Amino acid sequence: MFKGLTKTERAWVLYDVGNSAYTMLACSLIPIWFKELAIGTNPGQITGDKATAYYSISVAIVTVIVAVLGPVCGAIADHKDMKKIFFTTSMALGVIGCILNGFAPTWMAFLVIFVLAKIFYSASLTFYDSMLNDVTTEDRMDQVSSYGYAWGYIGSCIPFTIALLAYVFSGGLGENLAIMPYNVGKIIGFTVTAVWWFLVTVPLIKNYKQINYVEREKGAVRKVFVKIGNTLKRIATEDRKVLYFLIAFFLYIDGVGTIIDNCINIGTDLGLPTVGQVVFLLATQIVAWGGSLVFARLSKKYDTVTLILVCIVGYFLVCIYALTLKTLLHFGILAFGVGCFQGSIQSLSRSYFSKIIPAENSGEYFGIYDIFAKGASFLGSAVIAAVKLAGGTINIAVASLAIFFAVGFIFLRMSDQAPSARKTS
């Protein structure tokens, strides 16, 4: 399964397998469960428009909180023996929140628990990404990072399939297949996801050792804020390689995130059947698995930037292809194209960033990195909204995202050509 990886590398990859299960649930069934719990005529329930607005606000709240806390917690976690503590705590709280979400009696409780669980889940990813410098060597980062996304995609299908079946057999998707109460299906979905997430994380907790760190000192927490300010100033004025990459990353990952977040909206606007869309989304996970493995192999022969540029061009072509979308088959072809590059563009970006930052400050830098990652789809969603409000079709809206990939391509080339300012202790 993980041929050629060391014990520590395998343990690190497995966390992608674990957290991806929650990612898949959050992108598909959680919004559905929330709306079904919130919309109705009983006292305390709300309209569909308000449900969509409240859910969007909750996602925005998570983004802002993680963006503010990410660099601070990451910088603190860079101190000796702190990263595992921060990682384990955030992961455990995320898992507990995931389980509790299934038992939420009202839409308000559901939303509050979801926000808390998503915050801890996102925080765990900041610490997890920054561990890459500790678990492998620079020449293997592309391969190991790609394996993480690859097996994350395929592994997430297992608990998600169980959650989906529980949803269907509790009366979901409008099918008359209910053999259990609706609430039971929801509880099963959340619990299976949480248990899977926890169990595959255990090897990393057991095997991880923080190799790159900064020594602890008195008043370290207070000094963190000054340190982050100095780092941001240094990136803006001195480290062009990191600066140009972060600009490029924000642009092209915004396009990637927008397509992922709006995949159901695309199908809905085209009037496509929900069941068919869900099937293709599952298939996309499998394609993404294969695509990530292919790029992991290619990373042994080609440099990281070249491979990311290939992925950017691939997404650019996917956006242009969106102009032809009409049928479920067209939707499936679009999903296939997305799957070919989805995992690779994210995994290679993660490994490239690891290579150009100071290893001992990886937690702080990945906190900054995650500000751009967690903000993904913000501008893209605004573009889609603007096109739709102006009377344009979803086809034109998705095609408009091509500009993000075109400009991101230019800035990534600039990052590659800029001199490195990386310093290691």
Provide a short characterization of the protein structure.
The protein is mostly helical and 425 residues long. The chain has 19 helices and no strands. The longest helix is centred in the first third of the chain and has 30 residues.
The CATH superfamily name is MFS general substrate transporter like domains
Query: What's the domain count?
Result: 1
Structural class computed from helices and strand pairing? mainly alpha
DSSP helical segment count: 19
How many strand elements? 0
Listing every helix as H and every strand as E from the N terminus to the C terminus, the arrangement reads HHHHHHHHHHHHHHHHHHH
Kindly estimate the percentage of residues that lie in beta strands according to DSSP: under 5%
CATH topology, what is it called? Growth Hormone, Chain: A
Q: Alpha-carbon distance between the termini?
A: 35 Å
Q: Tell me the radius of gyration.
A: 21 Å
**What's the story with the biggest beta sheet?**
none
Portion of residues in helices? over 70%
- Indicate the low-confidence ranges by residue numbers: none
> What oligomeric assembly is this protein in?
single chain
Report the mean per-residue pLDDT as an integer: 87
The geometry reads as: globular
CATH class: Mainly Alpha
CATH architecture: Up-down Bundle
